[in-house]
Amino acid sequence: MNLLLRVARGIDGLNRAVGWSVMWLILAATLISAGNAVVRRVFNVSSNAWLEVQWYLFAAVFMLGGGYAFLRNAHVRIDFVSAKLSARGRNWIDVIGIVVFVLPLCAMMIKLGWPLFERAWVSGEMSSNAGGLVRWPVYLLIPVGFALLALQSLSELIKRVAFLLGRERDPLDHTGPSEAEMLAKEIAAAEAQRAQHTTSAAR
């Protein structure tokens, strides 16, 4: 079990890094969208390529952020039902849900998504819109995104089984800081670290 918990922590670290990276894509999509609107309004010029870049960035955030959302327990739950259950009951429901629903869904989507990407890669499929982009990068997001979600599902399964065996704290315990508070603390810590690096480099 100790080895499995180390594997789970490694998966958590991977999805945490991916989640932090894709957050910047939201800013990029916002800036591109604003730039497109200004250029279209001021110069009466529009570009399908830049419009599709926005869609690709949104797709990347949505697909690649699924594992991070699961890590954070930020996905949709029916809280008024789970709140009435014991900690063991909530974890048993998650174990069943992961094994019966999440992992099979991930396997199916990876199996269906990879050939879609492969065909687009080989054929060089392009957007049907004039001046549009090549399609394979956005198709690749499907198997990669579901692979990250599958890995995080395995991590969450390990942690829930460990709790049920009395080897780990409750992964669904919400008595600590809220997700927003934890995220704010992580952002503040990252900003402080970046400022420290900048100061050191200036010296």
TrEMBL record:
Belongs to the TRAP transporter small permease family. PANTHER family: 2,3-DIKETO-L-GULONATE TRAP TRANSPORTER SMALL PERMEASE PROTEIN YIAM (PTHR35011), SLL1102 PROTEIN (PTHR35011:SF4). This is TRAP transporter small permease protein. Part of the tripartite ATP-independent periplasmic (TRAP) transport system. GO terms for cellular component: plasma membrane. GO terms for molecular function: transmembrane transporter activity. Keywords: Cell inner membrane, Cell membrane, Membrane, Transmembrane, Transmembrane helix, Transport. The chain crosses the membrane at residues 21-43, 55-71, 92-114, 134-151. The keyword Transferase does not apply. The complex comprises the extracytoplasmic solute receptor protein and the two transmembrane proteins. It is found in: Cell inner membrane. It is a multi-pass membrane protein. The keyword Acetylation does not apply. Residues 31-161 form the Tripartite ATP-independent periplasmic transporters DctQ component domain.
